[in-house]
Amino acid sequence: MPDSHNGPAGAGLGLRRALMGPLLSLPRGELDFLELAPENWIRVGGRYGRQLRQLAERFPLVFHGLSLDIGGPDPLDTDLLHAVRRLMDELGVDVYSEHLSWCAAEGHLYDLLPIPFTAEAVRHVTQRVQQVQDIIGAPLALENASYYAQAQADMSEAEFISAVVSGSGCDLLLDVNNIYVNSINHGYDVSAFLRALPLDRVRYIHVAGHYDEAPDLKVDTHGADVIDPVWDLLAEAYHLLGPVPTLLERDFNLPPLPDLLREVARIRELQTARSTDNRLALAHG
User: Fold this and answer.
1) What 3-state DSSP class applies to 10?
2) Predicted TM-score of the model (pTM)
3) Cβ neighbours of residue 141 under 8 Å, at least 6 residues apart?
4) Domains of the chain: which residue ranges?
5) Angle formed by the axes of helices 119-136 and 157-168, nearest 10°
6) Which of 110, 121, 210, 244 stands the most exposed, by the fewest C-beta atoms within 10 Å?
7) What is d(CA 10, CA 204) in angstroms, rounded to the nearest whole number?
8) What is the reported pLDDT for 274?
9) DSSP string of 118-173, one letter each residue
């Protein structure tokens, strides 16, 4: 994992407004960091604004955007980026992540669409990532995206991701649920795909649940519990990377906070197991 800049540590949870009260009452030590979509918090005042700032005093925050449109044809929204930078500075946020996808064409499409896996797309995305990084003053972290159809592919998905990361100097937000979902929908081996990614650039990890539309069609919803094959893939990622900071995503069908914290605790268990393995390996080295 890159060590030239700060970032999250341990096990985190996505911030939703319905969770703000319970999170403010949470005893210290049960959660290590929170992730939020900055678009939903720019210029937010009143009670929610006060609660956000209270949470920022208790937990490190990371930003995970929804509308950057890094692969799209429209010019980047530099007003949004400058607003994100101001909020990063205000709240002491070091990490801004987004999706390796596109979501606008003469207006926002309110969906995350796949980018063609082509050399032209690599050049296009790379230039836009560098523009983003110039504004936010830090490496952008891009998430490997889930997708259900692919317009054009002159290279593999892993090759495309690696080329973007190498060409732009950005980091990787590794989403293990997206790898699992795509492996079922597009028929590839999860371990081979994971190992083909630029793992030395992983900034942090996402783990989430999904919806089973059919045996051969999984939909990335973030609306269910994490399933065992995804937990297994997370453990494999830790085997390759060590106990990288990891965030539980849950966007709807929100259970009570104690139920979410049980999944956060499972992340910690896997991280602790890997840390123990590392210590034992060193002791017997």
Assistant:
1) coil
2) 0.93
3) 95, 96, 97, 98, 170, 171, 172, 173, 203, 204
4) 11-283
5) 40
6) 110
7) 10
8) 87
9) SHHHHHHHHHHHHHHHHHHTS-EEEEPPP-S--S-BSS-HHHHHHHHHHHH--EEE
